Amino acid sequence: MVKIGNIALGEFPLLLAPMEDVSDPPFRRLCKEHGADMMYTEFISAAGLVHDAAKSFQKLDIYDYERPIGIQYFGGQLDFMIEAAHIVENANPDVIDINFGCPVAKVACKMAGAGLLQDIPKMVELTEAVVKSTKKPVTVKTRLGWDEKTINIVEVAERLQDVGIQALTIHGRTRKQMYKGEADWTQIAAVKNNPRMSIPIFGNGDVDSPQKALEYRNRFGVDGIMIGRASIGYPWVFREIKHFFETGELLPPPSTEERVEAARQHLSHAIEWKGPKLGVLETRRHYTNYFRGFPNIKTFRSELVTEDEPEALFGILDKILAEYGELELA
Q: Average pLDDT over the chain, rounded to whole?
């Protein structure tokens, strides 16, 4: 049984990655329904929380049906990280996660996210301060290093464990790689196989099929897998992996009806959570994957990503169901 503190996650948990503008409550709801064992919020700025930014506070919204859930935040200033830890704790997540992995320039170049991979002592100092500031279990998500010359994740993992984190997720790329090239899971395995490590180690990067999930579980020995991009517009990835683990068989892909219903639910919950304008906008990135592989879907997809009126969007989804209801996807 894999545990973060006293939180039981099952024998081999599948985690939904924290993804900006993706891992919001409407999407998390779908992923939970389709088998995600633990989920994380979009990452939240510590400075935004301290300065009472409305957008940052809205990302603290979590719901009981999502549990266990972690709130992830990032920052590079000690006082902000401590104050924000109290704010996050008051939102009552099961876990507080620190982001030391975001590679985008506006975060990393301000010595936050993956930027802290250039200053490991400061990363450790910030982590220790957060651990001491909360009664919640603290976890970390990070990368292998800043670039190929600074891959030091085995040492970093030890030091983070020593200051009290209770799980570590490692994306198998450096900051320099961004999301290009292949994730190096041998480095993740090196952390997991280090006899000094006693906390759960979760791997992240490139897992986009049940077959690859099983291969990586068996080959690298991690305690669980975090899934990011493969879930966008395709929350069924969690149930498909679990079914493959249990039976060795691939589930048939979701039907047109299932895909349309997921898109409808996603849009409905997004509108309910953020209002019609933002709800419509923030659902758009998922439509391509909801209907990937549908022949001649381009016209419908163009309508889905340009239409602003909710009722018209629901009407387009009805048309897709009518047009493709008998389609059998490979």
A: 94
